[in-house]
Each structure stands twice: as structure tokens, then as C-alpha cells.
Amino acid sequence: MIDRRALLATAAAALSTSAVAGTAVRGQTAEPSLHALATQKGIIFGSALPAAPVLNRGTADADAWLAVIAAECGALVCENEMKWPALRPNATDFTFGRADAIVDYAAAHNMKMRGHTLLWHHPQWFPDWLTNHDFGSRPASEAERILTAHIRRVCAQYPQVVSWDVINETVDADTGELRETSLSKAMGQSVLDVAFHVAREAAPKAQLVYNDYMSWEAGHERHRAGVMRLLEGFRARGVPIDALGVQSHIGSGNSDDSVGFDTAQETEWRRFLDQAIGLDLKLAITEFDVHDKNLPADPAIRDREVAALGRRYLDLMLEYPQLDTVMAWGVSDRHTWLQGRWPRADGLPKRPNPYDADYRAKPLRQAMAEAFDAAAPRPPLV
Length: 382
Ligand code: XIL
Prior knowledge:
By secondary structure, the chain is an alpha/beta fold. It has one domain (4-374): TIM Barrel, CATH 3.20.20. Helices cover 42% and strands 16% of the residues. It has an 8-stranded parallel β-barrel with strand order 3-4-5-6-7-8-10-11, surrounded by 6 helices. It has a two-stranded antiparallel sheet with strand order 1-2. The model is unreliable at 1-5 and 7-27 (pLDDT under 50). Residues 79-80, 168-169, 247, 254, 287, 337 line the site of (3S,4R)-3-hydroxy-2-oxopiperidin-4-yl beta-D-xylopyranoside (XIL).
């Protein structure tokens, strides 16, 4: 057993004498941990983590960051390190070092691993060599060879992964149609089915997930419909899929198109989730954060609204006994992917995560704790 209290005490001691980027920081996580609260209900709770803090242990920011991770999480997922651009410098080689660092850290702290992702089937996120690959005179078999070799090798490297995002974001959010990549151009959309079949063979014990960012917000109607068509097709063709990964970048959404902050369409969203479980799929929240881009400047207002929306969302999702995993896409506002990609108009730092930039628990952390506390226990695994 990890002694989480001891970890926090160590972190607090380290931080009381250190400074990060000129700001004094203070470790402060609450007990019981989010992991403990979730576990009581049969839910896995964890976070995305990049390799940087693991590789930079011994520096103040890395240690403060990992203190929160160690105290709160029962599972980790690599933020970028298992994606093709990170693992695959070219068509033949694999570079596992950075992902290994995270996986080893998880093992040392008794945490589960989620795997993200065997194929982010989105042209923007392909490595250049794959986009420009010469598939030769038999493009379908060359594409299938590359895909199959990749999935087999990566699954073999990480047998401890309990749940794989086999395919990520292949439905175009604007049209609901399937995206095209160099792989689908070479072998057709069977690329998706093949990925699941090979994953089942290579990771027979892992949960296999389709993961995407269709959300409860207005403007996601086509995206939801497209994802549902894909899932129904998977089922009709006997594709081995176990769960739908709901990324859950809620709030102002994860693009610049969104307006407002809370545009939830709860009825439509429940219908969508009901359809998914009607296909006998489990549900997972895979990348939770609450984007405050469109909220007023005042941090207290932002924190309150973010917490309230986060609570409403988690309560709704946790009503579904099929939902047994909640992963945050980061723990602290100091390190959030949302900051760089879609800055606020007023230039202020964003506050989408449960801990602030100085690793102090925020109202969102409290809201998450209360949601886990209020959730019904998941049914026991049969
Ligand atoms: C993001 C990472 O957080 C960023 O660091 C990276 O630059 C781009 O990818 N949906 C996903 C995740 O499935 O892989 C994305 O992660 C966030 C949106």
C-alpha cells in the first residue's frame, strides 16, 4: 500500500522551502483522496500525465505535481507518449523511453494504466512519415502490415494496460463522417475494424475502447450521430469493442467554435448514452476537464462555475452503472493542454483542473469528491 499521507507530508515539506517560477507554492491535497472515494464505488479514478515530471523528479515543480498525482490517482494515462508521433520515428523503429517512464512510475505507485491511443485516426495527428508513406503497388496490404505491426508491438510492450483507446477521434466533428488518413486511403475504412481485431488478439484481457469528444453541448449533434453510426456498425460487423470513451472536455468545449460556457443538451445526451449502453457498451470518462475560456475574469466566479458544471456532469454520467472509469486530463492548472491551444481573450491563465497552478485544491476537486461520494456503487464484476 502506498502511504498517501506520508507522500503529501514529504511534498509539503519540499515545497515549503522551494519556489516555482518565482512563486512560492504549497502542496495541499485533501483526504480521502479522489482515488479512495472512487474506489469505494467501484470506479477507477486517475489522470493524464506527460513524461516530463517523471523525468524531472527532484525539481520543485515536478515533485509538487507528482505529489498530487500520487495522492489522488489510482490510474494514469500518457498524455502524448503512446501516440504514433512519440513512439514511431519512422516505419520500422519504436521509441518507448518516455512512455516507459510513465508506465514504470505507475507500477511503482500501484496505479493502473490506460493506453492512449493505438490509432488517433485523424490526419492532423499522424506523424509526417506516415502521412507521406509510399504504400507501393499493394497499398492495402502495406497499410495493414504497418498498422498490425504497430498494434502488436505496442500491446506487447505494455501488457499491464487495462483499457486501450484503440481508435481515437475518427468521426469528423463538423460533418459526422469518418475522417480520411493515409491509412484509410490505402486500405479503406476497414482500418478501424482491423485495429480492433488486432488489438483483441494482442491484448486479450484489455478493455477495448472507441474514444471521441462528442459531448453534451449544443453544436455536437452531428458528431454524436456520426459516433453512434460508427458504434452500431462495429456491433453489426462483430468488431470486438467493449466501451465508448467519452473524452469529456466540457465547459467551453475543446475548440474555438464553441459559444458560451454551459450549453448542455441533457435530454439528447442521455438519449445518446442510452443508445450506447443499448449496444452493450461500457462507458468511460477518459479526459475530463472543464474549460473556462468563456467565463468572466474573476477567478472565484470561474472556479465556482467550473465546479458546479463539473458536478452536474459527473452526477449525470455516474447515474450510469456502465460508467466505471473517470480520468482527468491533468490535475493542475499549471499544466493544462487548453492553455496553449485556445487562449482566453483576456490572456488570463485558465482554470480547468481540480488543482490550481500552485497545486492547491480548488472547488472542482471538492465537486469531484462529492460526485464520487454521491454515486451508487458500480455493480460487482462478474
Ligand atoms: C492533447 C495533449 O494534451 C496535447 O499536449 C497535445 O498537444 C495534443 O493532444 N483529445 C485527445 C488527447 O484524445 O490525445 C488530446 O491530448 C486532447 C484532446
